[in-house]
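Summary for the steering committee. One of the milestones for this cycle was to obtain a three-dimensional model of the protein with magnesium ion bound, which we needed before selecting residues for the alanine scan. The sequence and ligand used are listed below.
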Amino acid sequence: MADDEAARLRAMFDQAPGFIAILRGPDLIYEVVNRAYYELVGQGNLIGRPVREALPELEAQGYIALAQQVYASGKPFVGHEMPVKFKMAPDAPMVDRYLDLVFQPLCAPDGSVSGVFLQGQDVTEQKRMRDALRQSEERWKFAIEGARDGVWDWDVRTNGVVYSRRYKEILGYSDTEMPDRYEEWVNRIHPEDRSRAVGALQDTAEGSAPYHSEYRLRCKDGVYKWVLSRGIVVTRDEHGHPTRLTGTMTDISDRKETEETIWRHASLDALTGLPNRRLFRDRLEQELRKAHRQQQEVALLFIDLDHFKEANDLLGHDAGDQLLAQVATRLLQCVRDSDTVARLGGDEFTVILTDLRGHPHVERAAQKIIASLAEPFQLHGEVAHVTASIGITLYPGDATEPEALIRNADQAMYAAKHAGRNRFRFFTKSMQKEAQLRVRLARDLRQALAAGQLEVHFQPVIELPSRRITKAEALLRWRHPKQGFVGPSQFIPIAEESGLIHAVGDWVFAEAAMWSERWAEKLGRSFEISVNRSPVQFLGQSNANWAHVLKEKRLPRHSIAVEITEGVLLNASTQVAEALFQYRDAGIHVALDDFGTGYSSLAYLKHFHIDYLKIDQSFVHDIDHNDGSRAIAESMIAMAHRLDMQVIAEGIERPEQEAILRAAGCDFGQGFLFSRAVPPQRFEQLLCG
Ligand code: C2E
Ligand code: MG
Ligand code: MG
């Protein structure tokens, strides 16, 4: 062999990935050794030495005999992960190695064996790693099988999934029951959660973020269970495609249940099951965003029940609750599934109408709601009547922000109440100013009584046949230091809302009683003054019991009459009947004010002790032009008389009206034709002068 050829061969040997040695003759003398071999055995001086002498530690390990056997038999030996110990230096301790090795017999040209070619690889590191991995896998397997969580292992290429025993157990299966397939998982996911759960897994497969998804899985019994699944990609192929994903599955149904209960408590109204104020706000924002994207209109309706407070206090709170629940049901029946009905609290409801098809659509919905709620409610044997006032505002025409829309709808609702309830109103800009004024008035009204800004005026009530002043109605006046005169129609509702009506009403009553006493003295007979009493004053804590007060003051009977409206009688309970009975007992007449504007029939009224019927101004107004109004007024008078009630006509402004009413047998009249309400001193002149 030429020198340079031998050198090339040497270099090749040295660069070969494994170790190589050639042993010659039956004594196995080192002839060629590459660098890897030197490094493996830790000896620098081998060439020309027999193995037994160069590496005596191999003798006891059986490797010398093995090589001799290959030499003798001419058959190769292949070994995997063969354990070998080398003494790396004369005094050093032995070092453990694992080798994949081949002993190949070398043949002379005549076919006889002349040596052994030794070649192999040091696989110590690989073996250690594999051992470690196996150990850790065993530990891991042990850990997961004992754990609360299930484990899954997905081989992407075969679509096989190993589900752990615990995984199957969570779903109610035994270890042998659930096939190890990917589809088993997919088909078990709740249809509503499926695309989300599978999509998230795909995201993990394509990206690097770990898998984390909560979804429902169908159990053996068909019931769905909330689980949390987590996972990672464990291996990828050379193109980066995932080949194996592994993860865990945790039963989170308990947590979900708690979460759901908490959510329900926080978002739904317990009484009606409707979304509460909070959820309503969320939904509103959501719908507005959607409408913005799709360039659509949204209508927001505020619904407030009329006279609910009365019904609630008079019929009892259980009945009130039932009533609200029934209102909720009716509201839901009036709108489409895609619309939102919510309860803000008390007797306040809202409706969000989406996907509008023009204003008539909104108007129809509002009308439907009003008609539906005006139907009587059956509450365990009792019948209740409520009506609804509705305020409507439109997005984006009136406003674009949720707060502004809510304010608008509230103001429009107030306008509907003010216009006489049981109706709806669309928001207008002028309502905003009125609302601001209302807020100011409510603030100022608190001081008005103490500041002496309130006055009671008296309007004469005329006995029609004689045209003499026989009674008076006490009407409240407020001289506001800045606004000037503010009418009762404007501030009585505010007083009712704030509860001030109790103090104010009792004060009016005391004033009326005082003047009645004085004028009775002057006239030498009792003089009846009627005092308006709002429905709210029949509820809760009206401070003074008027019947008692009169008895204490020893005022003559029929000094005071009380004017009530139909709203009080509509949901009348024993409480109202009791009050009316007390009045009768104390010689207080009861007048039914504004008759004809509400719902009650005369027949209904005969259940109560009503002394006077006051025909509302709206009938008197056109009685001399409109045959219909005239006929109604005439029959009211006739029927009232048959029920032993006397009739007072309100709002007489023209002699023609007076003539018609007198001819129809009306007992009393009241109106600008005779006199407006005037201060007490002026009234005294009219009465005695
Ligand atoms: P009401 O009890 O029906 O009182 C009659 C109203 O009609 C009074 O209005 C009176 O000034 C007005 N009026 C009388 N004659 C005529 C007429 O010929 N033509 C016209 N156009 N109107 C006439 P006012 O004083 O503005 O009171 C409005 C309402 O405020 C009253 O209606 C009553 O419901 C309420 N109110 C007034 N004072 C009190 C009070 O002290 N307590 C309560 N709770 N309500 C009161
Ligand atoms: Mg009145
Ligand atoms: Mg009236």
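Key point for the committee: The chain has a mean pLDDT of 91.
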